[in-house]
Write a structure and sequence with these properties.
alpha+beta; 4-stranded mixed beta sheet; elongated
Length: about 450
């Protein structure tokens, strides 16, 4: 989006249409003495024109920034995702990480986990479209009372690390707090500080920050670098997220326990890699059974057909060769996958919602070589089911291989820091097929 679009969204959520200013009270809500609270409230007024100048100034500063690292002369920030993407309300749970600074005295470097700088935060937002930003539900409605903006001192202290009992926040600090008060969730960064004269290259900075994050992970704290800012948009799979218990049907089937464990694990995870592999393993469970059963049925149907010329040796020999060829195909995983899809995908058109279908018809994952495109796109509304199944199988198998194999000379390799959101878009299809597999392979007990 353009800078003016972002400014408009922020200001519309702070200032009433007819008011050019807003009153701000900074208070303490953890003190029960109302008289003390009233006596110690800090009151000020924020004027829209000055706030507008502040936004212009911060958005005009050009600083070195790529998709996930933001650098100044004395520090750099790497965007990270906390606890598998569960960002909302995570500030308190990760507060113990925000205070300490790890100092490398030998190299004059300081490492820490911090809230993202305002400049980096707004830079990320500018990379999205206006529609995506609004759909993402990033704006938290502030605690307003008429034209009064109320800020809790404890919140200010956490966000800014500023003790404000003895001194009033300067305008720039206050404006920043107000903007942060609007934004959800809490965005975190791994931060490195260095002397202004220090000649750290972008490659060195990235390497140091990744090593820092790895060492944190070794202590059992879930952090991961995010090279894709869309991780923080509303792109997580929210299948049935608005469902209430009244929407649940009474169980009428007995399902395979192992398949349910895989399915639950996929649903529990926010990581598309885990989700995709769990759903794939549900299908993999049938790779031996289904091809064998379908081949036996094909043989029986053929030889029991009264029109089958069983006395013709040439026909029998040809039929035998055909069976041998089918057996060879079924020995390969891709062939087994195709047979499994043929079993559980009766009507491709019903698999996923209409608004997702164009993606599979027109686009492929970013981590798959574009030369494969014609073989792995398909129209789920196409009446030629065999063609759809063929390309669907190829797509699922190529994606699976890109996740499982990561050889340096391979064309299709998945990098979780770069391709996280791209893989997310592949999950709905394989999830729908896995659900069919669980349901169709179940037993009715009522």
């Amino acid at each position: 989006m353009e800078k003016e679009d972002l400014k408009k969204i922020i200001e519309e959520n702070l200032f009433d249409k007819d008011n050019e200013s807003i009153n701000v009270n900074i208070y303490e809500d953890d003190i029960e003495d109302e008289e003390y609270i009233q006596k110690n409230i800090q009151k000020t007024t924020v004027y829209k024109d000055k706030f507008d100048d502040f936004l212009d100034n911060i958005l005009s500063k050009e600083q070195e920034s790529d998709e996930n690292i933001h650098r100044t002369d004395i520090q750099a920030e790497m965007l990270i995702n906390v606890d598998s993407g569960r960002q909302y309300s995570s500030l308190i749970r990760f507060r113990h990480l925000l205070k300490p600074v790890l100092t490398d005295s030998n190299n004059q470097l300081k490492y820490s986990i911090n809230l993202i700088s305002l400049k980096f935060l707004l830079t990320l937002f500018l990379k999205s479209s206006v529609d995506d930003f609004k759909r993402s539900d990033f704006i938290r409605h502030p605690r307003m009372d008429g034209n009064l903006f109320r800020i809790n001192k404890r919140y200010v202290e956490i966000q800014k690390g500023t003790e404000i009992e003895d001194e009033k926040l300067c305008d720039a600090d206050l404006y920043e707090v107000m903007i942060r008060r609007l934004i959800k969730p809490d965005f975190f960064v791994a931060k490195i500080q260095f002397p202004a004269s220090y000649g750290l290259s972008a490659e060195d900075i990235k390497s140091d920050l990744l090593s820092f994050i790895f060492n944190i992970n070794l202590k059992g704290i879930k952090l991961r670098p995010s090279e894709d800012w869309q991780d923080f948009l509303d792109l997580r799979n929210k299948h049935y997220s608005s469902m209430s218990i009244e929407d649940v049907k009474i169980p009428r089937k007995k399902y395979d326990e192992n398949l349910l464990h895989l399915y639950s694990d996929a649903n529990w995870s926010d990581n598309p890699f885990t989700q995709y592999m769990d759903y794939y393993q549900i299908l993999e469970n049938f790779f031996t059974e289904i091809p064998k059963r379908r081949l036996i049925k094909y043989i029986k149907d053929k030889i029991t057909n009264p029109k089958f010329p069983y006395k013709d040796n040439n026909v029998l020999y040809g039929f035998g060769k055909e069976i041998a060829q089918l057996q060879e195909i079924n020995k390969k995983e891709e062939g087994q996958l195709r047979e499994t899809l043929s079993e559980f995908v009766e009507n491709p058109n019903d698999l996923i919602e209409d608004d997702l279908k164009d993606y599979y018809k027109d686009e492929i994952p970013k981590f798959i070589d574009k030369r494969n495109k014609k073989d792995i796109i398909f129209d789920l509304n196409d009446n030629n089911t065999d063609k759809v199944i063929k390309n669907m199988c190829k797509r699922i198998y190529i994606v699976r291989n890109a996740l499982v194999h990561n050889k340096s000379d391979r064309e299709n390799n998945y990098d979780p820091s770069k391709h996280y959101s791209s893989l997310k878009r592949e999950v709905p299809l394989i999830r729908a097929i896995a659900e069919n597999a669980i349901i169709y392979s179940s037993e009715d007990y009522i």
